[in-house]
Structure formats: C-alpha cells, structure tokens
Amino acid sequence: MKHCIACRTTLPEKPLFVLEDAPASAQNIPDSQEVNQDRGVTLGLYQCPECGLVQFDCTPVSYYRDVIRAGGFSTTMTELRRRQYEHLIGTYRLEGKKFLEVGCGRGEFIKVLTEFPVEVYGMEHKAELVEIARGQGLKVWQEFPEEPGQRFAGETQGPFDVFLSFNFLEHQPRPDVMLQAIRHNLAEDGMGLVTVPALEYILEQGSYYELIRDHIAYYSFDTLRQLLTRNGFTVLEEEMVNRDTLSMIVRKNPEWVPGDRQGEDGGLSGSSGAENRPGEGGKPGAGETAAARTLARGYDQVTREIRRLADTLAANGKTLAVWGASHQGFTLAATTDLGRCAGYIIDSAPFKQGRYAPASHLPIVAPDHFRQEPVDVVLIVAPGYTGEIAEIIRRRFSPCPRILTLRTDRIEEL
Asked: What phi-psi label fits residue 272: left (phi over 0), alpha (psi between -120 and 50 degrees) or beta?
C-alpha cells in the first residue's frame, strides 16, 4: 500500500499525472564518468483523498536531508529574505530572540539574518556544508530532525524562539516527524517561518516542468496549513512570494497533543476554499480531474512551443543555449525537444559546471563559455531570476544574442 506522507491515508490507484523520461534527481548531476549510466525515470503524481496533498509515490532522493542551494547568493533571493526577516522581527518584536534555520546549507540565508539584532543559529545534515558555514563564522552544527522527541545537539543554545525552513519541507518523506521535532525544541511561545514551492502556481500556470523527483510533495495553501496545524502550530500569516512560493508565519500551539485534528484551518478566519481550487483537498474527486487536465494541457502546450522554436532555429541555421541548470531546466531538456536543439546549459553555480544535465545529458557550463562557443539565442528557464539573468547576458555577452524566456507556457523575447 502507498500512503500519504502527511496523514498516512492510502493513496488512490490512479495517478493525477505521469511524467515520463524525467530526471532521476536535480542535484546528483552526472559527471563525464557517470553520464553513460544515467537514465530518465517515470514518476506518478497522486493526490491524497483525505487531506488533499499532491505527492509522488516514489522513494525520496538519497540526499533529501541535505540543503543545496544554487541560487542562495543571488540578489533576488537575498533581498527577499531580507524583507521577510524585517517583517517577521519588526511585526512580532523578536529583537534579541534566538533564531534557528533547520536545513541551512552553506549558511546563505542565516548570513543575511546576522544583519539583524537577533541570535542566529543553523542546523545542516551535510558535513561539508556545515564546515563551509562555520568557515564564515556562523554558529552551525551537523544534525537532522529524525524523531518527534529529539533534542537538538545545539540544545545549549536552546530552546529556540524562532525556526526557519526555506523550501526544505517539500523534500521530506515524513514532514510530520520533522515539524514535531522542531516544535519540541521551541520555547512555549516559539514561532516559525516556512516556505515551500506552491502547487497553486504549478496548476494556475500549467507548468508541469516544475515537477521533479527531489520535491516529493506539492503543497497548496490548504494542505500546508493542515500539515502545520496537525503537527502543533497555528498559522498567523500566509502569502505567495516570488510568484511561485508559499510563505507562512506560525506560532507554537501550547495546547496541541499528537493526533489532534481540531481546527485544521490553521487558525485563520474564513473558509479554506479548497473546493474552489483544482487539485486540492475538500473535493479531491473533482479536483483530481481538474488538476490532471491542467497538467496535461500545460505539457502539450509547452512541448509544442519548444518544438516550434527548435524547428525555426534548425530552418534558419541558428544555435541555442539554455540558461538555468535548475530542476525546471532539467525537466524541460529531458521531456521536450530542448534536449536536441540546445548546445549547452549555462549556470553560475560552480558545482554544476563541467557536469551534464540528468536524462538529457546537455553539458553544463559557466557563463564565460559563451566566448568560446557563442550562440545566436539564449533561452532562460530559471523562474524568479529571469530579469537578473537577462541583465547579465546584456552586460557580459558580446555580440549579445537574442534573449528568450519561457513565460508559463509561452516563449517570449526579452
């Protein structure tokens, strides 16, 4: 039996959507020795009939405990975190409080937090990332939330007043265990800031290429709120940020007991509106059909759009590169004609350069590679960073190529 990772209900037999030839992972990027053994995988996407959570039925990637952020130092992301910290600390008077990021990677985001008058700590599973963070003078230790009653190794600094979790929960095969372990290490009035990729964005845009095995779960406002409430938190604020990410501010519920399912609207007033949004809880039967249609329509439109681009380039003898060795770029390259018409993928993250996109096997190169192998067209597939990348191309690439981007399901010129 396959069970929902959030509420343990048996999943239905029929998937919402099947993604074939998908990358096996977004971070285990094959090198020259591994690329010949690399193969695409088939992924089935399901919706829980009880809580509505949309999720893959596969095992998680081997590195789901690690936080690897290629875009952590981008201007776009650091400014977003700075605004979030300013709002959280100012609104809830958290000056001088102890903040803990659970899954802090190299310390990209807690480094920004040190600009504020709070105590800053981080917890990360991957040893080499912990060392990098410590090398920057950050207070980080190696650990992962594995048990509900786990006392974190940094307990000498705890209990903590605020926890942070940035796009980490969607990787977890037991998000309930993670949240309960975090709650166990918070002060009685402890708070949190949680972000995850938004299911609403995927369904509204029909952007099937946001699907990747690394993200085992796809949360909506309703399903994230239910999960947080079911595991001992009250949701105080929720919003969509950066067009594609859910953000919630929560407070520890001192009256919660394990198994409590009262008030699963999370404490916000009004109806959850689940019955009105495709693919969410409330009416999973009808929503399931709507979500399936949306994803299938998005897949058909995007594959047609890229096929048209590939044919036009071939007819005119023009060359193409992709910018964005992201999970979106990997999925697009593997499941459309992008893999056959592009010469390479550009990415600014050094740890990706010199490797090959999973499934499509396009080489990943640094931006300066353009000088050695110029192309006529660059297609940006890095949602959230499009404007920033376009400016880099205009400033550094000569002669400047045509700059295109995939905007939802249409290719547009910038």
From this structure: alpha
